[in-house]
Fold this protein.
Amino acid sequence: MENRCKFWLPKKNRFCANAPLSNSSFCGNHSQRSDDVWIPCPIDPSHSVLQANLEGHLSKCPLLKQTQSLFLQPYYQKGINAGKEEVHEDETIKPTRVKDVLSSNEANSCSLDSVTSEMKRNAVYNLTLPQFYELIRKIQSVHSTICKDIRESCKIPEACDIWIKRDVDRKLPFQEKHVVQQASILGNLEAFGVLKESVNWKRCESEGPYDVPCVVEFGAGRGYLTQMLADCYGIKKVFLVERKSYKLKADRSLRQKEQFILERLRIDIEDLNLNAVESLRGCPCIAVGKHLCGPATDLSLRCCLAEYSGEGSVEQCGGNPSLRGLAIATCCHHLCQWKHYINKSYLSKFGISKEEFHAITWFTSWAVDGDHGSGVSNVIDCGMHIHIEKEHSGSVADTVRKMEQCERAVLGLMCKQIIDMGRLMWVKECGLETDLVKYVPPTISPENHLLIGRQVSQL
């Protein structure tokens, strides 16, 4: 048998392939010496390093060069789209009781770091039953006020036939559920008047250099939403915003297209000043994003539409004359944070405080907890309410466990819709015509909310 490290890699279902150290059964990466301390790398916490080797590692960390290069970019501005914890002075929030049940340690953590799902759950479970039911009543009241019409709008445009019929490069990855989602995002943009078929763009090419808008894809990942845009709508210039590095990207296929310009911005959306991207200035653009998890949706909206002060911090909602339209598929609402949320002032008018907002975000996970199919949407559309007991005995944890799965799912879906409607109202305040639709059936994806908008001048 080969002389290999004896550390078992469960994900790869084999032993490590590296050679072991002398007088050891393990390689340097998997040495189990008890006297060594492993600490997260200060540059890239996704990997760890021996404390004794830290100084040498910092000079050759794989992320070092990329980080140093990013800091020199004019569009890098730390935390520019992060938002603020507080709301404006004229925004009043009714006193909340959820805050009272946060332990002092948790409360301190909330002000410094993200509020974790565990912290949100503990805050809810430490409520009394009257407080818990009071919160549910508030959620139902707010939902009935602002979430009256979220229609189904699964649109598969003819322009995407080459993908639907699989008449594309066989080397490109193809998963039907992802293709349907991507096609419906583009179909809704087309129906909303933001996109046109490539043949129509070509008729207008002589009118100016920017007749065909460029595309900014937030949370681009491997970039296959952009690939479909390029194949089906004749887009020639794209900016892919993604903080991680991926294999099997669409970039190679896209760069083979004639006169196609692609720029990948490896940066966290939170730190991106889109106005400072030199090659994007003056170019009308469309912003898209498929499944922008949690606060990434808020960061992207702020990046596209917020006005900036002289110091570079976001001041308020403002129109962006270069933005023709946007389509953002939201998801992972349980990860949302009060600091990043785009429309705190809107929720505060309904008496929803920071602590209640975090409880609401925790409830959203119930909407996708299990296979609810299309039944949940139908039940909520018929006006189903959560059953509230008259006798308030027992704990919140026991009450949650006794709730019917459909009740939990309906409450979670209500909370998701409240969060997304707040986002829609913020985009509307920026001067865009907006809509929030269910762009695919829940059987394809329970995360099926699509926020779309376009400049009113396009009407």
